[in-house]
Amino acid sequence: MPFVKSLFLTLRFFLLLTAVVFGLVVAFFWPGLLVPMQLLLGLLVVLTLVDWLLLFGSARTGAGGVFGRRVLGDKLANGSDNDVAIYLENTYRFPVTTETIDEIPPQFQRRDVLFRATVPAGQTTVIHYQLRPVRRGEYQFGALNVFVKSPLGLAQRRFCYGQDQVVPVYPSFLQMRQYELLAISNRLTEIGVKRIRRVGHSMEFEQIRPYVPGDDPRTINWKATARRAGTGTDTLVVNHYQDERAQQVYCLIDKGRVMRMPFEGLSLLDYAINATLVVSNIALLKHDKAGLLTFADRLSTVVPAERRAGHMQKILEVLYKQRTRYLETDYQLLYSNVKAKIRQRSLLILFTNFETLNGLQRQLPYLRGLAKDHLLLVVFFENTELQHYLDQPASSTADVYNQTIAEKFAQEKRQIVRELQRYGIYSLLTPPQQLTVNTINRYLEFKARGLI
């Protein structure tokens, strides 16, 4: 019968049964205990049957029991904490104790998804927890198993809900929305984005407005002020400028094997993809045009720089499909395609990774070619795990040897920065965790200096 598969005896039942069996054993030596023990055994059986009847026959509705559902977004954000809610509705006439096991996708490798709760009669309880995926793709959730016990607690009934729910994991749109809200409210400094002082007036003139305390005295329009004075108004007026608009910002993402390296479970490619999503959105908020180009041993995807409705959704869908390739990156191919497809001078943010100076020098002619026609920012990564190792005290000769090797690799990274500076190429060496903030800082710095 189907209901038999949903019934389970609890630990309380087995503890009481053990006590009764022990009493029956003792009664073998003291016959006076036999009848009480038999009565207790009968009482235990009766109470267990009553408990089963309560779980299967005392619900307020025909279906009866506890109804559960898992609530999460139609997609998850990669590398971010995604909220998951479990709603438990009790339709019994008595409070129940529940144990809920959520069969989450195996990619999470978590064993702490058992939740205990008490749900009063006729009420609903909500359980919250978070999931942090580290790979893009489709994730399949299993059943939501709810084990229910009545106040007697001798038996429990299992309910299964939400089987085979498939949810895609996209680049971190949650991070994008966070930065978007902070940018709109001018609160980006709260997450580490620097307030950049503008140098000169490389911006477009917008209008003349009255002077207010705090305005730069150099922006006072003396001719307009004099004309207003002639009409009997002695208020100073200033020129108001706005950022130059409609500049092209392209994110170039290297998908070669160097971007497979993981940090905190997330590959360098996924860090670059999440940062690209945020920087592209910030560029659109600054009235610039955002574009995308992905490459490895061959050109993968080109999204022309635009600023129109639905453009961010297009970028999001393209980024979702990107996968790392296992071959070496062809920078000559990158150079020729950028020259053919990006005709207007643009800001090119190249997300890649160089581990050695030798590796950079092989690609330097192509980077210099890109920097000749565009404003090029080369973004590559610090090995934070090496830095953590360098900070540990050496306790043996082997540790000294290993730290010397680690310092050599760290020195190579600094030499790469100097080599790029030598040829007038902007660079950003950043920890993976700070990639988004540091890239936004450089983009805003370039706009403030009028470089784009």
Automatic annotation (TrEMBL):
Presence of the UniProt keyword Iron-sulfur in the record: no
Protein name: DUF58 domain-containing protein
Keyword Membrane included in the entry's annotation: yes
Domain DUF58 span(s) in chain numbering: 207-365
InterPro entries: DUF58
Entries under Pfam families matching the protein: DUF58 (PF01882)
PANTHER family: BLL2464 PROTEIN (PTHR33608), SLR2013 PROTEIN (PTHR33608:SF3)
Keywords: Membrane, Transmembrane, Transmembrane helix
Residues annotated as transmembrane: 33-55
